[in-house]
Design goal:
Elements lengths: L4 E6 L11 E6 L3 H7 L1 H10 L16 H6 L15 H9 L3 H18 L4 E2 L5 H12 L7 H16 L14 H5 L8 E5 L5 H10 L3 E5 L9 H5 L5 E5 L19 E9 L2 H9 L18 E9 L12 H6 L4 H10 L17 H13 L8 H7 L2 H25 L2 E7 L10 E7 L4
Parallel strand pairs: 3-9, 4-5, 4-7, 5-6, 7-8
Antiparallel strand pairs: 1-2, 8-10, 9-10
Helix pairs in contact: 4-13, 5-14, 5-16, 7-9, 13-16
């Protein structure tokens, strides 16, 4: 007897760093039985029926007509854009000539020196969060490590610092619910993107009396904060199990017309860009570069970025920023790959790394030894000191986030980037914060 196998492709919630569909291999004779009970297929079918599900609505595009045409299949259907993996990025860098590589590094140094100024430390620990933490420690109800608490409190504190949330000075967490009574219209809803177990939202809800909470997360988690949050009868909690790429916020019925604040603690790679586009969709739902003003129900934003090496040209919100700087799609992916050097080892404080002058001096020595690098960029990288690679990685991270910052400002927002925790707590310490410019 000959047994045939079949491949099943299921398109459901996926990792933001890898958008390949899930592929299952099984015997053909078992297919019907599997389809009837497959939980992933049922989940994907259920999701597709939700009014807020629209495949790829926040994905963006390459913005290059020639490549768009090449992605049409033989039957005229549009083929998915392939994710550029870290290995592909590395191989592309290694194929550069030494001159091309040196010119790219020189661009990075110049752009960082020009653009990344006045980036301030902004570590905050609101009094109400300190009281909340102390109470939780005493009651042994703290479900996460101290470094995570510090990051969560500072994200909340930065929102308070720019006026998105009312000052918490002197308020006890147990009094928040009473303080919020009669002020419900002034308390925004909170949408936590990439919410995971929802502990950032839990701190915010407990300390500031938020009345509406939306948790956006593609995965299913155990030991999450939902159980504790649902015990608060005055809190409306809704968990949306969906990839941010496919979420149409305008179609979430319970959110329509409700002022909201978007938050996230560590949105990996392209997930930051997907979230920004989700909060500020263009009118025609295409990834054009025309600035759109923030909607009237947008109340503020605090997003901690991370994993810049996973960023993709297709998803990046501000391609025009890179193009105007004379950077190509290929150079963008090289820059994203360099960012992994910033956090791949313990390099100490960012301020202790080599400065631009030192790095440029190193570049000049490479150019002068051109014959010594006949084997190409791979040899150059192998000879680079770890501290110099780390310095380059940090600068690339700032350049990528500066493009996102400018994109927010183009939409009429009062926005900035800060270092919201010391690098000793987390080297991924960039926080994008924004509020409407007419905020009172």
């Amino acid at each position: 007897m000959v047994l045939h196998s079949v491949v099943i492709t299921i398109q459901g919630p996926m990792n933001s760093g890898s958008h390949a569909p899930l592929i299952l291999l099984m015997l053909e004779q078992n297919l019907k039985g599997h389809v009837k009970r497959c939980p992933l297929l049922k989940q994907a079918q259920s999701l597709s029926l939700q009014p807020f599900y629209q495949k790829g609505i926040n994905a963006g595009s390459d913005g290059e007509e020639q490549e768009e045409e090449e992605r049409l299949g033989v039957d005229g259907s549009r083929l998915p854009i392939m994710t550029v993996s870290s290995e592909m990025k590395r191989n592309a860098v290694n194929k550069m000539s030494v001159t091309e590589f040196c010119n790219l590094i020189d661009k990075i140094e110049s752009l960082h020196e020009l653009l990344c100024k006045d980036i301030q430390d902004s570590f905050h620990m609101p009094d109400v969060c300190s009281l909340w933490i102390k109470t939780r420690v005493e009651e042994r109800k703290l479900p996460f490590q101290e470094k995570h608490i510090t990051q969560q409190a500072s994200i909340v504190g930065n929102l308070e610092n720019i006026g998105v949330f009312k000052k918490s000075l002197g308020r006890n967490p147990s009094e928040c619910e009473e303080a919020g009574e009669g002020e419900e219209d002034s308390v925004p809803a909170v949408i936590e993107f990439g919410a995971g177990r929802g502990y950032l939202t839990q701190m915010l809800a407990d300390c500031y009396g938020i009345k509406r909470v939306f948790l956006v997360e593609r995965k299913s988690y155990k030991l999450k904060a939902d159980r504790s949050l649902r015990q608060n009868e005055s809190l409306m909690l809704e968990r949306l199990r969906i990839d941010i790429e496919d979420l149409d916020l305008n179609a979430v019925e319970s959110l329509q017309g409700v002022p909201f604040v978007a938050i996230s603690k560590h949105l990996c790679g392209a997930a930051t860009d997907l979230t920004l586009r989700c909060c500020f969709p263009p009118e025609n739902r295409k990834d054009n570069s025309e600035p759109r003003t923030a909607k009237s129900n947008f109340g503020g934003l605090a997003i901690a970025t991370c994993c810049h090496h996973l960023c993709q040209w297709k998803h990046y919100t501000n391609k025009r920023y890179f193009s105007d700087l004379g950077m190509t799609k290929k150079e963008f992916h090289a820059i994203t790959w360099f960012t992994s050097w910033a956090v791949d080892a313990n390099h100490g404080l960012e301020s202790d790394l080599p400065d631009t002058t030192d790095c440029r001096s190193h570049l000049q020595s490479i150019k002068e030894q051109g014959n010594g690098y006949a084997n190409g960029v791979e040899k150059v990288l192998a000879d680079m000191e770890a501290a110099k690679r780390a310095s380059l990685g940090f600068k690339c991270k700032w350049i990528i986030d500066m493009g996102r910052l400018m994109w927010l400002r183009e939409r009429g927002l009062d926005a900035k980037i800060v270092k919201y925790v010391p690098p000793t707590i987390s080297p991924e310490n960039h926080l994008l914060i924004a509020r409407p410019s007419n905020f009172v």
